[in-house]
Amino acid sequence: MEKAPGSPSARGSYPQKTAGILSSQYGINLFLAGLVLTFAWAVHAVGISKSHLLSYLITLMLIQLLWMLWYLCRSCTQRRLIREKDTHAGARWLKCGITLFAVITLILDSFKIGYYVDFSNCLSAAEGIFPVTHAIHTVLQVYFLWCHAKDVIQSFKTLERFGVIHSVFTNLLLWTNSVLTESKHQLNEHKERLITLGFGNITIVLDDHTPQCNCTTTTLCSIFSQGIYYLYPFNIEYHILASTMLYVLWKNIGRKVEHHQQHKTPFKFHGITVGMIFGLIVLISTIAKVVVYLIQIGRSKTKSELALTMFYLHAISVLALMCTAGIVALLIYRLEDRSLDNSKNPARKLDAELLVGTAAGSWLLSWGSILAIICAQAHPKYTWYNLPYSILVIVEKYIQNLFIIESIHHKEEKVNDDIKTLRIVTISRGSTLSLTPSYKEIYNGRAARDDGELPYLLNGSISARENDGAKAAASQASCPAMRSTPEFSFHSTSSVTNNKRRILKNIAAFLFLCNLSLWIPPAFGCRPEYDNGLEEIVFGFEPWIIVVNLAMPFSIFYRMHSAASLFEVNCKT
């Protein structure tokens, strides 16, 4: 029924829609201001230094800290009130994942503090205050997400919208700052690798904003400066995960939650041995490949070409297996007749949008590589492997996205009462009408009564009762086939369903480990998009580097987000 224009509910929803629009515009402008400041620092704009950027980020973190403290204090005073919760938001495995990344982020902050102490003579105070503020911000934010990620806020909604969206874009700016810093470090090593491959005609001045003074302790400075860049990938994942969880919290403000029973779906290793074994083989071989790649690349032209060839052949094999597994899973879904869950779910909707949106980063790089291979005048042998690799990257993400999105929209399988009915009816037809109390406790939750009455089952539509003994005997004698047909049908249907579920669980486990494996190389500096050299010749060094720096963070995040989604799929299947 449509609400009247002048009804109280319609009037009440209007200010909340306005607050949602205003808060989103506030967040976007907050982010754009920080983005421009970050870009100005990166290109050495006149009058803009790193201390200005860090001061802006420190201010944003302090504002978020004040808001989180206010929210936590208000929650403590209203502890007795029953709060609505979104059971789909803030899954436990997601909280555990963000906690792991947060712990490594705290190690990164301690390294930055040590780095500042060693170079304190020529670094601004902001560079020392930033890691301390960031560490406090990280601890409080993880605690906040653990306690309140599922909240559906129904009071102070306008204020809370601004507080949550401020937190979302603060994390996005911190993510952007980490991505830029990490990318600049990668560029410093990139030019040397290209020179060893024979691309000496590419010239560009790279600057990593190194301090203009000597370190007080050389050994510690080396440990801190090198260790920082190995920890950045975890810091990047932490901030993007935090921003997505906070975004779901923002979308849930003022939402009317549909109260459905939420079944816990813990992760179990039982039944996924095959998928885990193949996935672990891929993971171990990927780690070995990354180690060899980082050792060999840049040493000489021959070693660099062998490292790139090894990378492409391994990646082609893994992507081909992932495509095959995804196609098999989609075929199983086509054969199933399961209904989809179309209920409103901000967390699930965000998952699907992030999968498609972040996959565009890899697709952009792949289409650029394909075009470079087609247009290039000279083709070193190793560059030809880039063609099937780029095509498979596009196809694999396309198939995997379909599989994950369809899986998270499938309704969870519940224990069917029809199964219980079939078992009891079969027993009753087999002249075993008196069930033991323990047996009835399993199916009915109470002891049987002396009159032999069976429980009402099948949503109240079937009731098995004792009939006249002679009539039951005549029925059994005339229709012996009827006694076995339900049981046979049940067991055959159950067996087929279990086999399909087992295959899907193994595929999800295999793809989960494969996505973790494919996250490792780009996150830790194994990036053929930089080292291939062919794209730089066709598009120019600076344009291609800009494209890679913009697309690579989304490509890296896609793999981690896909792994998280596949973990959830494995739990649901």
Question: How do you describe this structure in short?
Answer:
It is a multi-pass membrane protein. This is OTOP1 protein. The protein has 573 residues and is mostly helical.
What does this entry look like structurally?
By secondary structure, this protein is mostly helical. The protein has 2 domains: 15-201 and 214-256, no CATH class; 270-412 and 496-572, no CATH class. The chain is built from 17 helices and 2 strands. It has helices at 8-42, 50-77, 92-118, 125-148, 157-196, 218-251, 273-296, 301-335, 346-375, 386-409, 417-429, 437-444, 469-478, 480-523, 528-531, 534-539, 541-572; strands at 456-457, 462-463. Strands 1-2 form a two-stranded antiparallel sheet. Helix 3 packs antiparallel against helix 4 (125-148), helix 7 (273-296) runs antiparallel to helix 8 (301-335) and helix 9 (346-375) packs antiparallel against helix 17. It is globular, with a radius of gyration of 29 Å. Residues 1-5, 7-11 and 415-484 have low confidence and may be disordered.
* Overall pLDDT level: 77
Structural class: mainly alpha
What is the CA-based Rg, rounded? 29 Å
Share of helix, binned: over 70%
**Which term fits the overall shape?**
globular
Could you state the oligomeric state of the chains shown?
single chain
Q: Low-confidence spans: pLDDT under 50, at least 5 residues?
A: 1-5, 7-11, 415-484
Reading side by side through the largest sheet, how are the strands ordered? Answer: 1-2
Instruction: Tell how many strands the DSSP assignment holds.
Output: 2
Order of helices and strands: HHHHHHHHHHHHEEHHHHH
- N- and C-termini, Cα separation: 37 Å
Number of helices: 17
> Largest sheet, described in full?
2 strands, antiparallel
Number of domains: 2
Instruction: Please report which band the strand proportion falls in: under 5%, 5-15%, 15-25%, 25-35%, 35-45% or over 45%.
Output: under 5%
